[in-house]
Amino acid sequence: MVPKNRIQEILSEYDPEEITIATLCSHTALQIFHGAKKEGFKTLGLAVNQNTKFYDAFPLAKPDEILRFNSYDEFITKSKELTDRNVIIIPHGSFVEYMGTKRFEQMEVPTFGSRQVLKWEESRDSQREWLESAGISMPKRIADAKDISEPVLVKYNGAKGGRGFFIAKDFMEFKMGIDLSEESYTIQEYVLGTRYYLHYFYSPIKQSGYRVGNGSLELMSMDRRDESNIDELYKLGSTEELKKHGMFPSLVVTGNIPVVIRESLLAKVFEMGESVINRSYELFGGLIGPFCLESIVTDHLDFKVFEISCRIVAGTNPFTSGSSYSDMTEPGMSTGRRIAREIKDAIAAGKLSEVVS
């Protein structure tokens, strides 16, 4: 992990008028660049074998410049190329997944949010420790696959966009679906209900709104996920019969659908977010910026949270012009723009070191 004082040393050499917002050209990059431009920042796209021509089709979100690398290791060995440009990195799911936690921690470039959270996010066990100790209800975990006696969801560690997740109803189905090349996985009960992905933003420097600790918690938006091929496979009949033909249900996310939850549940939505933030400060010094609680609401209107994503998630992409929730805070505020606004406010208040690491 790059020491905090090293990041502060780098920040002290930055020209606050020349701050550049940078991220990997993938995932939520269009939204991040679009929001940064609206807040008056220079933007820099980072690419490692990404095809970036399609950015030409979106002039309001196209980065001002694209810097190409041969490998993700070069983000460490060529960090000075980024700091010379006064860069602040915005992490997102693809960036964290491709870089890996260890390389991300070693990168000597100021990064929005807390790097301490990465270790807690990448481990399902650590996530469960954090969330349950915050009073969050989670699906129960099955320690031994031989004990599967009801539908379960098997999840590999890391941010993979649903790739490799699968459902099993017994040990035999587990053996058919498990990928032995994956290092670790978690087995948890399959909870019946409606899935809601809750997109929050926590500011440690904002002094208004829904106060949590020394800062403020916002609900930015909410989505559900289109998943291939499970959303269509049921139309063909019994999954057991389909498996005989080599057709297995897949939970790979292919798109996102905006949703609005019933208003009476919003109190619980904010209480969960508040508990997660308060516990994060006790465990590792605090979660900063965007995060997502991936939840299921049962027919008894109870929440079960099955995962936390500690960064901007792709489910925020339908809301580049704001959402039903963020419009009641400030019209047109996307999560990408909210990140840029937080950096802008921190610069103005002389508190940039409080929102980057």
From TrEMBL:
Its cofactor is Mn(2+); Mg(2+). Keywords: ATP-binding, Ligase, Magnesium, Manganese, Metal-binding, Nucleotide-binding, Purine biosynthesis. GO terms for biological process: IMP biosynthetic process. It comes from the Archaea. GO terms for molecular function: ATP binding; ligase activity, forming carbon-nitrogen bonds; magnesium ion binding. The keyword Secreted does not apply. Coiled coil: none annotated. Residues 101-344 form the ATP-grasp domain. Its EC number is 6.3.4.-. PROSITE patterns: ATP_GRASP. InterPro entries: ATP-grasp, ATP_grasp_subdomain_1, IMP_biosynth_PurP, IMP_biosynth_PurP_C, IMP_biosynth_PurP_N, PreATP-grasp_dom_sf. SUPFAM superfamilies: Glutathione synthetase ATP-binding domain-like, PreATP-grasp domain. This is 5-formaminoimidazole-4-carboxamide-1-(Beta)-D-ribofuranosyl 5'-monophosphate synthetase. The lineage of its organism: Archaea, Methanobacteriati, Thermoplasmatota, Thermoplasmata, Methanomassiliicoccales. The gene is purP.
